[in-house]
């Protein structure tokens, strides 16, 4: 499965995005746009599971977002999301 399809599979989950401060992805085209505009920088990393051989999480460090997460204006903040099938497994944090 290609990266766009993998990201959409996990980022479209109704519980994943809102916990990270963004709405669930509505299409693969939206996931591609996010990869191109949000994740295409020196401070974003995909985290691949050796178990399934695909990216199942991402982490980033950057400027405060225009989202529902608590942050101070112009203060960098770390962010991450983890695909729901990998929640509560104690493997990421």
What does the secondary structure layout of this molecule look like, with pairings?
Elements: H1 3-11, H2 16-20, H3 28-37, E1 44-49, E2 54-62, E3 77-82
Antiparallel strand pairs: 1-2, 2-3
Describe the structure.
This protein starts with a helix and ends in an 11-residue tail after the last strand. The model has no long low-confidence stretch (mean pLDDT 85). The chain has a three-stranded antiparallel beta sheet with strand order 1-2-3. The protein has one domain (3-86). The chain has 93 residues and is an alpha+beta fold. It has helices spanning 3-11, 16-20, 28-37; strands spanning 44-49, 54-62, 77-82. It is globular, with a radius of gyration of 13 Å. It has three helices and three strands, in the order αααβββ.
Please tell me the overall pLDDT: 85
Number of helices: 3
Described by strand count, sense and barrel closure, the largest sheet is: 3 strands, antiparallel
Helix-strand makeup class = alpha+beta
Helix content: 25-40%
Strand content: 15-25%
- The helix/strand series, from N terminus to C terminus, equals HHHEEE
What is the CA–CA distance across the termini? 26 Å
For the secondary structure, the number of strands is: 3
Radius of gyration: 13 Å
